[in-house]
Amino acid sequence: MTGDGARDGGPSRPGLPASVEATVALLRGGKYVCDTSLATSVFLALKLGRPLFLEGDAGVGKTEIAKVLAATLGRKLIRLQCYEGLDLSTAVYEWSYARQMLALRLLEASGTRDKKALEADIFSETYLVKRPLLEALETPEEGAPVLLIDELDRTDEPFEAFLLELLSDFQVTVPELGVYRAKEPPIVIITSNRTREVHDALKRRCFYHWVDYPTAERELEILRVKVPDAAAGLSQQVVDLIQQLRARDLFKVPGIAETIDWTEALMALDRVELDPTSFTSTLGVVLKYQDDIKAISEAEAKAMLDAAAAG
Fold this sequence. Notes:
- The structure is a single chain.
- By secondary structure, the chain is α/β, with parallel strands linked by helices.
- The chain folds into 3 domains: about 10-90 and about 130-210, P-loop containing nucleotide triphosphate hydrolases (Rossmann fold, 3-Layer(aba) Sandwich); about 95-130; about 215-310.
- About 50% of the residues lie in helices and about 10% in strands.
- The protein is built from 16 helices and 9 strands.
- The strands form 3 sheets. Strands 2-5-8-1-9 form a 5-stranded parallel beta sheet. A two-stranded antiparallel ribbon has the order 3-4. The protein has a two-stranded antiparallel ribbon with strand order 6-7.
- The longest helix is centred in the last third of the chain and has 15 residues, at about 230-245.
- It is elongated and about 85 Å long.
């Protein structure tokens, strides 16, 4: 249950990349294409055992980093999806009250009347339901898990306050059982879409990186990795058009996932290039709001295709 876990990385965290270049290669092995700046933040977070706070618009690949790290490092991925009203019983632990009541009745039926003995039995690990944050303090044989705290900006300040304590000491107190302390701190990735500002006190406990939309060159490289069977001309055309769409005043600009989805959808339609009709008829793959879709007429689609061809 308890144990002393070192906070700093290095020798206590075997199996992690030894350099920024190795981190780039590690992520690339999981089909994640990133720049040196992001790879440096990931490397330092892994090396020094610090949480990594990733902020950026929805769809830029923040969550995917945690998934790729878990897959490439061979670690368990534990995900806490945040939302308004998230409480400790959902995030940390709760008791299985139905099973406790059943056990209590069975014990009483067997003649047990000792109150302390009853409490010790029903408030044991047998009836403890571990939620993501408590589960992340366990260290399996393959090493500390990757803890993804996704979209922290959707929660409220009381939960942030609790998270401050957890990230400082990597321990949780269960009053009936005692302190659960990580022998090896988990690899923590926190994401935010910046729908609200996260408190500075929490950011100070993390390394920070803003994840932006990729350049056209990097997005084309991502497509080559993620959709290798796509025709080169189609991939280039999709990237050019996505870049143009991001420059427009849309309610929600397309993310990298939409770039990949659009390419795969066009391949499913046996398209090797886009024309105005196929452009407008497949916009629902890329844009998720009707007002955004309506804003692009077939004439505008043709103009965008012409710009992509010219450019």
